[in-house]
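Reading is simple: the token line describes the chain's fold. The lines below illustrate.

. . .
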Amino acid sequence: MSKIIVIADDFSGAAEIASVAVRHGLATEVQTAFAPDTDAQVICVDSDTRSLQPGRAADIVVGFATRIAAAKPAWIFKKCDSILRGSVLAEARAVAGAVGGSRLMILPANPSRGRVIRGGTYFVQGTPLHETEFAFDPEHPRTTSNVEELLGADQSGLITPDVETAADVIRHAATVDEDTLPVGGADFFQALLEMRVPSKDAPTPTEPAAVSTGRTLLVCGSVAAWGKRFVEASSLGIPVFTLPHGSAKIAEGFRTSRRVLVGIGATRETHGHLAPVLVTKLAQVVTEMLKQTAIDQLLLEGGATAAAVVRKMGWRRLAVRADSGNGVGVLRPIDENADVPTLYVKPGSYPWPQEIWPGQSSLGT
């Protein structure tokens, strides 16, 4: 089969879609620089544009889309954030223009996670989006639940249907033709995949991978998730480090525990600093750790954090090994000459599966 190409605006989104493809039995890679010369059947490319202004994001995405279109893929999917953070419409129009799409279908809702659109209003677990914790997102606060207002700009040639059930997703996916660029979340991609790649043509799906008993470093760059992770780690006796601790200090944590949590935190030293600056500092500490200390599993929470670490390590291609559920991608850098960790990557807004990050279970130090 010809390759299926996904363009995502952040690394965790690329990993999430990649996990769907692997669940379907398809060989999949996540890439930070498009490299079509691979045996992978699905390539998920991270453009790392979530935090950019619309014009700059569109310029970068056009470059990716032009190179991708030249590779003549079977079809292209534009991954966007499920609650429409980032320059969703600008990037979608940029991709459509580069690949010749005449219309867009933006379907971000994931009914499988309780994220639905009803009457043009976005709900998360039954609560209007602007009344959830996403209203306090440091970069993209969701101050409205109206989908048209969330997208903004000119919405001509755009389809943004209501979606409340899995059946709704399938029904709308069936209307996507060769002139329509599909844009959306994991549920939409899965529906398209099931329609276009029959299971009889796919290899046997891989089994979900669980975290081993080796050294595990959880890197939490999500402000929304930090409080929960701190409580979970503290209750289990897992060492916790926040900026500005250096790599040497963090390495000491592995002397008493096989799990360590490091994050931006919420301290006097970090207060008032822009999120991208703090993420860059966090990624620098983590890459120093990886170069000094043997880590078996690296858990990356938050797309910006994952992208910053992966790029600082120089990992451009990562093979997707398994789907561990809840949108978690299990990846390994393609570098036979390096002792690299297995990466577990997820968006900051989803929980870790219990078998990966233990929470209140007995699995700890």
Notes: Residues 15 and 329 are 5 Å apart (CA to CA). The chain has two domains: 4-201, 216-346.
